[in-house]
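Readers outside the structure-tokenisation community will struggle with the description of the input data as it stands. For illustration, here is how one protein appears when written out as sequence plus structure tokens:
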Amino acid sequence: MARISKSNAAKFNARTLTKLQAAIEKDPEIDLTTKWPLRYSDRLHEMRQDVQIENATAMKSYGVDDIRALIRLSASAEIIFPLSDTLQDLLGMCNSTEMQSQCLAQRLVDVIGLSKVVWKGPFARQKMVLSCGYNIILKAVRNLDDTTEYTTLAYLYQYKPNIAAPKPLVWPSLTTVQKGLIKEQLTPIMNDLRSLLGEGCKDIRRHLRRSIKPILTVDEFEDFLFNSDRPGGEVFVEVLRQLSLATQLPSPAIVFTHGDLRPENIAVNYENNEWTISGLIDWEYSGFYPKYYQAIRCTNCMAPYKEKDWYLFIPNCDSPKRYKHWWLLDRAREVRNV
């Protein structure tokens, strides 16, 4: 996994700011003009001009609404997780760390330029998936600091190598019988995932919200969900808490959860007149959650007037039908955000 770093102009400003802050800490009344870089404006203008030329060229090649237009030759890149031997060969990686830093961004731009677009979302400027050949898929995401997807894939590779994980979108064209067969295939996959027990979570609705401390029990998880930035009035929250099964029954098991199960993230192959599941993708929302939580996440985007029949084919182990009380409680809790 690699990350494209900031432009030279951005890094120049960051270094300047760090230097000025250090000077202020040493002497709060210092004359900052004595610490300003020589030819600051001219140097910054030159750096920004180089980037603007690159941006214009890239956008002309790919279009404005394309994440590839934002990946520049002038940017530097860093490797934050080890690359496979196949990927290192594709990138022509050098042994020298210094050489890697200098040539990685160039090689990434070259490889991306020769890649084929496999998938792009409604906002392709934010996220795209590219096929680089040699069975290598590149997922490019803008401004991503969360590495959950990578660490999840590494975790599954170690503990559940039989789980199909990273191949594109045919659900609307399937017959009811074919959709039912996909549901049947999903059930053992989801059950296998749920056999992994553990802890750790984040709440993703309209906005991402992370717990500032470890969550180890369902009671703590429910407290986390209730204590949002907009929890609602005291009476409203207390009524919902009284409805929570966490206070009435033994706590549900905490199991491994995909977190974003929907047709767009289920890859299939068509062979011998049958559709078979070949992989599950997009694991960035995965983690250990109460066993009922996948049912809630599966229907997170369900709206009263959107006729998507996927919600009728959710595997039984993750279906709202199995966790009616928890599902309805979360729907009531969601009213706070309306």
